[in-house]
Amino acid sequence: MTELLRHRITAVWSLLIAATLLSWWLGTDHGLGSNTAATLAVIAVAFFKVRCIGLYFMELRHAPIALRLVFEGYVVVVCGVVIGLYLSGQ
Amino acid sequence: MSELVLETPVERAETPARRVRHVPGEEGLWVLLFGDMLVFALLFGVFLRYRAQDPALFRASQGALNTTFGAVNTLLLLSSSLCVVTGVRALRHGVSRVAPAAFAVAFACGAGFVFNKYLEYSDKLSHGIKPATNDFWMYFYVLTGLHLFHLLLGMAVLVFCFVSARKPALSERRFAFVEGGACFWHMVDLLWVVIFPLLYLVS
């Protein structure tokens, strides 16, 4: 049991929790002083988390390259589109 | 397919020297998962397009949201995902007592999410905030409602994983279903990780 929890996955989970708390702080207190900068940071953190979930929780880092590339492509494209559309409304 | 206790195939997958590239779950499942993820990506795009047309309205409406609900739900889903990963790994390593408990805790986190959503929806509805109120609220209800539907499906999948984990031995095929179910649950988590900042934090 302890062996199961003392694994890289637990470290990834801790990182994801920390990233969530960081986004929460950035999104509510605007820790960066500017709404746009804070929002861009929040979006970047969100897609970093998405990638961690895919690679570590879904185990795509051990998947065939094609499947992993489709996922990596999804993360990059959707993150880019979200940032582009957000900036177009500023 | 012959019955086997799942230690051999999986131990191998986690030993770097003998690591074999492996599709989690069934291949067809990934068509479904990426299809779902694309539909949500389109909705994110549509939401941001509408937001760009009237940022002031979207900002004002967003002000009525309580970010605590969104953040706590993120923490619940991330923790449930850790439990699901632990459950799958326990099955692989043949630690059969841990797996059902891990899936049960993941289910409980999912139930916590649903309860939070119930509180949030009732609060909004009691203040007269409905999908028809404005574009922001329409997309709020569409995105969170569609996500909630996936989460409820995911909870049914977790019940399947729990029942499977209680069996003394799993066929390779059934284990692949459990693995696929786990990936579906992680997708529910992954989508929320984007929905939360998009609806609650983008300013």
In words, what does this structure look like?
The complex is a heterodimer of chains A (90) and B (203). Chain A has 90 residues and is an all-alpha fold. Chain A has one domain (2-88). Chain A is 81% helix and 0% strand. Chain A has four helices and no strands. Chain A has helices at residues 2-5, 8-29, 35-57, 65-88. In chain A, helix 2 (8-29) packs antiparallel against helix 3. The longest helix of chain A is centred in the last third of the chain and has 24 residues, at 65-88. The termini of chain A are far apart. The mean pLDDT of chain A is 89. Chain B has a two-stranded antiparallel ribbon with strand order 1-2. Chain B has one domain (3-201): Four Helix Bundle (Hemerythrin (Met), subunit A), CATH 1.20.120.80. Chain B is mostly helical. Chain B contains seven helices and two strands. Chain B is elongated, with a radius of gyration of 19 Å. In chain B, 39% of the residues are buried. Chains A and B meet through helix 2, helix 3 and helix 4 of A and helix 2, helix 4 and helix 7 of B.
Relative helix content of chain B: over 70%
Helix count from the secondary structure assignment of chain B:
7
Q: Biggest interface and its residues per chain?
A: A-B, 49 and 50 residues
Structural class of chain A: mainly alpha
Percentage of helical residues of chain A?
Answer: over 70%
The assigned structural class of chain B equals mainly alpha
- Number of domains as seen in the coordinates of chain B: 1
Shape by Cα distribution of chain A:
flat
Strand tally of chain B: 2
Catalogue the unreliable spans of chain A.
none
Distance between the termini of chain B: 54 Å
Spatial shape of chain B = elongated
The CA-CA distance between the termini of chain A, in Å, is: 50 Å
| Name of the CATH architecture of chain B | Up-down Bundle
Query: DSSP strand (E) fraction of chain A?
Result: under 5%
Ranges of chain B with pLDDT <50 over ≥5 residues?
1-5, 7-13
